[in-house]
Amino acid sequence: MNMIEIWKNRVRLHQKKMMRYMKYVFNDHFILVCLFLMGALGYAYSNFLKSLTGDFIWSRLIVLVVFVLLILTGKLATLIQPADAVFLLPKEVQMKGYFKGAKMYSSLLPSFIIVLITAFLMPLLVATTTLTFFDMVYFIVMVLMLKNWELELQIYALKVSQKKERQMLTLIKVATVALISGISLFSYPIIGVVLAILLVVGSKNVLSKKGNHQVYQWEWMVSSEQQRMHRIYQFINLFTDIPSLKGKIRRRKYLDGFLKGIKPVHQKTFDYLYARTFLRGTEYSGLFIRLTGIVAILIVVTHSFYVGLFLAVIFIYLTGFQLVPLYFHYDNMALTNLYPVKEKEKLAALKRLLRMILFGQSVIIFIASLAVLSISESLLMGIVALGFSVVFCQVYLPSRIKKMTLAKRY
Questions:
Q1: Which of 46, 85, 160, 332 supports an S-S bond with 218, CB 3.0-4.6 Å?
Q2: Does the model's pTM come out above 0.85?
């Protein structure tokens, strides 16, 4: 079996595995929330564009930053496994075909996102500059070429042994992408296309000659791929359990003060366990911090009461929905199953924790809204957020856990 066949077999198994998880990620709730969220952002973006004039000088800089982030986002999917460091080492000279397939596969999703985001940004450029919608074609071609070059650099970096040299490659990527994108945005878009093509053609020969005198760093390749898959599993774990995912636990002694209010009595066993897990488990506390930060920023940016109100309800729902699996966190531990705590007490403990978390998020939403809305609108938004938090914990949470419990049994 040659290396191209090995790649095709691995990507087929990988896609099959991902498809099993995707049905849990793209469920009815998630799709519905995404549709409403896109509608709200589209409405806010439309209002933002209407308020702009030709003297808005930040549009090109905003697009420049987005282009750089678009090109640097998206890691090379090598699908390298730990055993490859032994079994594929003798075939290292044949790995070129393997990584060619990896590059093509890794460019599919970024290419779609590049086209989508570029089309989204064009109204901003058209409204504030002399650019036209036809120039979008030049920008798309330029960014796609730069992404192709960036993936080539990622393949070359697999042979780089020194961390400082890999960091230097990252700086070169940022500087080069920013320079070409800046020239394209601030002069003529077609110049960016020409420069991107010259960069791809010129660097291909240079990287090929340098790579011929180096060998693949197998430990680095294995570690890099494991980190990439870990990030993917972290996202999927928000919707369903991933057996191979091991969450990081941090002591966070400075948060122990939040646990002092929990009395050490039999009925509060799971109150302590759930609170401790939330504070120490990065997958739960990190989720809360990220979603809360995003909704606060969106409310400040949109400057709209109705859009902000909608975002507040949606993000409170998302936070609560993603924290529901905390209920089953200790199901596979023998001691918690042997300890005589009733199921209703376990559910009550999760209700109390989620109510406190969502109340805290509601307060942060209220504080963020004060920056752009009137006091009366901010108070109304805070009251709605608190009310929705109560409804979520008292009505939706029990029915959701009941449904998930039945699904686990069968």
A1: 85
A2: no
